[in-house]
Amino acid sequence: MTNPRKNHERRADMTNNALMRLNRVTRTYHMGEVTVNALKETTLDVYQGEILVILGPSGSGKSTLLNIMGGMDLPTTGEVFFDKHNLGLANDNQLTSYRRNEIGFVFQFYNLIPDLTARENVELAADLVDGPLAVADVLRDVDLADRMDHFPSQMSGGEQQRVSIARAAVKNPRLLLCDEPTGALDYQTGKLILALLVQINRDRGSTVVIVTHNTPIGDMAHRVIRMRDGAIAEIRENASPLSPERIEW
Ligand code: ADP
Ligand code: MG
Questions:
Q1: pTM for the whole structure
Q2: Is any ligand 1 atom within 6 A of the Cβ of residue 31?
Q3: What is the pLDDT of residues 189-229, one digit of tens each?
Q4: Does residue 183 line the site of ligand 1, with CB under 6 A?
Q5: Where is each ABC transporter domain found (predicted)?
Q6: N or C: which end of the chain has fewer CB within 10 A?
Q7: What is the pLDDT of residues 124-157, one digit of tens each?
Q8: What is the Å distance from ligand 1's center to 13 Cα?
Q9: For residue 231, which ligand has an atom nearest its CA?
Q10: Closest protein CA for atom 25 of ligand 1
């Protein structure tokens, strides 16, 4: 499983293959008299097939960066390319289509629709895209086959997060963006959630970006970015990513 040579070849291969390219991207918020530079000039490639973990303290710009990647927010300046398409030139319909078809989003607090069951939450996402995976298969993959007809209020936090991963995965997105996916979960449950993200990366080839303030989670990534004060302070490659079961925090 952890054949170092294979890992190395895989990374070498990845660097030739940027799924997403951010070129001198900034994001500024204006709050009355105050200007917040949430993201300072940032240039970054996200490689096809990698697991990229973005670390940094609260307020360092992690969510801002992730939302720009997902087409949920637009940069103030700079360019964002997905598979060579310039998102800055996309109209509203094209941006909606990008978010629907290419991106799966996993949030800290799940964002499930409360009056839909687990199955219905996942079906709703599947119905939005061409060629979704089979809903029942994806729910089984996240080990929720026997919870399909439960409502979010009838499920634990870990189960709800598994539904939300199924909802993202059913679209078979090229890019899975996760904002503090373990932030509301206990330690063991968090590890199971991270293991599911690794499984999707491995089995479906989705590129996975995970934002967290939890430094040890970086050990499971192919590459780790550390953000500080709205800028990338460090990018590090992991020669041998650990399986989430072996991470301790
Ligand atoms: P992180 O996810 O690392 O905690 P964020 O990307 O959410 O950080 O925020 C970066 C900075 O931008 C913070 O100072 C935050 O207060 C500010 N910010 C984020 N979103 C907004 C917004 N909608 N309006 C004004 N300021 C914002
Ligand atoms: Mg955040």
A1: 0.93
A2: yes
A3: 999 999 999 999 999 999 999 999 999 999 999 999 999 99
A4: no
A5: 20-247
A6: N
A7: 999 999 999 999 999 999 999 999 999 999 999 9
A8: 34
A9: 1
A10: 29
